[in-house]
Design brief:
CATH class: Alpha Beta
Strand order of the largest sheet: 6-5-4-3-2-1-13
Number of strands: 13
Largest sheet: 7 strands, mixed
Strand content: 15-25%
Bound molecules: zinc ion
Number of helices: 8
Structural class: alpha/beta
Order of helices and strands: HEEEHEHEHEEEEEHHEHEHE
Shape: globular
Distance between the termini: 34 Å
Amino acid sequence: MFGKTIVFLALTLGHLSAAAHEHGHTGAEATYLGNEAIMVTEDGAKILFDPLFPNGFGIYQMVPSDMRSALMAGEAPYDNVDAIFVSHMHADHFEVGAVIAYLERHLETRLYAPQQAVELMKVETDPDSAIFDRVIGIGLERLDTPETYTLGDIQIDAVRIPHAGWPGRAEISNLVFRATLPDGTTVMHMGDADPNLVHFEPYEDHWNAKRTDTAFPPYWFFLGGDGPLILSQTLNAKTAVGVHVPMVVPADLIASGADYLSVPGETRAVSDAD
Ligand SMILES: [Zn+2]
């Protein structure tokens, strides 16, 4: 009886992994670190979004200190990071000194960040530092054509979508990144995007050019404005998992039934075998 169960399990797992391969997905995974900090891993790649920030304002989840120390030290599972992405320069997303220190220590890692954030780094350290050879400052203006980048087998694009509260804070460059890993899995990180269709409609061709497996919107996209419509129809994303969730999870978010990440260390399978 016991032996039969083992054989059955082995056959089932074999079938599942074969099915995954047929669809070109081999199990990319997202790990939640805090606020909008996410690590996405796949066999050939590892990327981080908004991982180093100094302030949760007492509301948002900080990256736990043990996790942050391991990340800064490059200890597994935070070793060999291909790229760090910064959505915008607010203190719950970006810490100038920590990002500089990280790049000084991890020569294999590239940084993609708004030019505004890069300018802050150049005030904080020698602007001729060799780290800037691995820094891609993105100087997009609102309604500019998206930028695209290739990093090894990783395809990246960025578009500037205004920060929540628009037209307030319009001067803050908030970037929506889309990254396709070597196995074809595509993720989207939205920073603190404003949930208003007027920002997203001009980029219809951009969203439709590539199917996103999992988008990571700030949780307010599930709750108001055009957020639900943008997630379900505009972005061309199969699934959405909320981030930037307050430590005291809003009752209306729980009631919405939306999926979200709020506990450091939580994971989600990113690839979708359909
Ligand atoms: Zn924020």
